[in-house]
Amino acid sequence: MIMASGPAGTRTDEESTQERILRAAYDCFEQYGIAKTTIENIASRAKVSRPTVYKYYPSKDAILDEISVRETWKVNSEVRRRLVRSDDFADFLADTLLLVVRLANENIYIRRMVESIEFQQAVISPSSLMQQLQRTWWANLFEQAMARGEIATDLTIDEIIYWLARAQSMLMLQVASPALDDAQQRRFIRRFIVQPLLAGSEAR
Q1: 123-132: long-range contacts at Cβ-Cβ below 8 A with a sequence spacing of 24 or more?
Q2: 1, pLDDT greater than 60
Q3: To 5 degrees, how large is the angle CA 179–CA 167–CA 1?
Q4: Within this chain, do residues 185 and 142 fall inside the same structural domain, yes or no?
């Protein structure tokens, strides 16, 4: 959400102010928690006024959205580096989801945001940056699977991506449990999250 540049020499200042606000938000979320952090806290930590914060972000949800996108990009880059491609779509999707949630769970900011009901309500909005990012990552994979006849015919891409966004939040809490090992977690994902998306599982 970088602001458009104005007169010569102002773009760096604009970006610097925005980065200070984001860094302040990171610090406040870590110190106070997401629910208790206010725009006043963030403005004070960034040493700017509340109107300056609102110039870049219309709400705390907008700040949460941007931080979640930044941190999720880091996770996605690592997933792409580690992932082993499989010819079996269902196995590949299960492996991908397990790797995504394990890496995300290791990220302190993503983990704290997922634990926040306030954050969960914000990111499931179709207009949120996170939903747009999820669509960027998943749409091509599912479009190809649909073309091969591997996806249930009564589902749309948007429905699948919405469900995956909710499922990933739930899985992060599940993965944090020491009661299940990787094989059990993968079976859970394969059976209860991936299977309902596959051809032949259409609602009757």
Answers
A1: 123/64, 123/65, 123/68, 123/165, 124/162, 124/165, 124/166, 126/158, 126/162, 128/61, 128/65, 129/1, 129/65, 129/66, 129/68, 129/69, 130/65, 130/68, 130/69, 130/72, 130/165, 131/161, 131/162, 131/165
A2: no
A3: 125
A4: yes
User: Which of the 8 DSSP states describes residue 156?
Assistant: -
* Residue 87 pLDDT: 87
- From residue 80, how far is each of 13, 31, 95, 120, 169 by CA, in Å? 34, 31, 12, 25, 20
- Using alpha carbons, list the distances in angstroms from residue 142 to 134, 145, 158: 12, 5, 10
Q: Cα–Cα distances in Å, from 143 out to 10, 15, 124?
A: 42, 36, 21
CA 134 to the chain's CA centroid: 7
Q: What is the CATH number of the domain that holds 28?
A: 1.10.10.60
One-letter identity of residue 111: R
Give the tens place of pLDDT for each residue, 63-107: 988 888 888 888 888 988 888 888 899 999 999 999 988 888 888
156 & 120 share domain:
yes
